[in-house]
Amino acid sequence: MSETIGRRKRRLMGEINVVPYIDVMLVLLIIFMITAPLLTQGIKVDLPDANAEPLPPDPDQLTPLILNVDAEGRLYLNVGSDPEAPIDVETARERIGAILRREPRTPVLVGADRSALFDQVVGAMVLLQQSGAAKVGVLTDPLPPDQAPVIR
To answer: How many CB atoms lie within 10 A of CB 122?
Structure first.
């Protein structure tokens, strides 16, 4: 009996210490603030407007592979030594195939100038599928909230 009187029972602490979580969030915020401006490279393409919902962000998602088609039908790929230089079909096929063999889960997108011919855009999509892309998405610019979509 004397043993139990001398001992005190410790009570469990029922609180969560959130300070480490806040520190991690601040570090992530700083990292994203630094890297976001670096990801804005590419060519100027006048994308069509659409009221499509943006895809939800996925933290495990890889950097997308984007094949752009300009108004003259030239192809640009966002990977390589110079992403702002046009490439030919064979070079695009080789680079895309190499990337998709290395990482098959890479998201693949087509960005086309609104003045590009439809057959050029479809040709780019076919090129992506022939290079190994299982799914191909299309880039669009969001419409202003007060503007209705234009269907011609």
So the answer is: 13
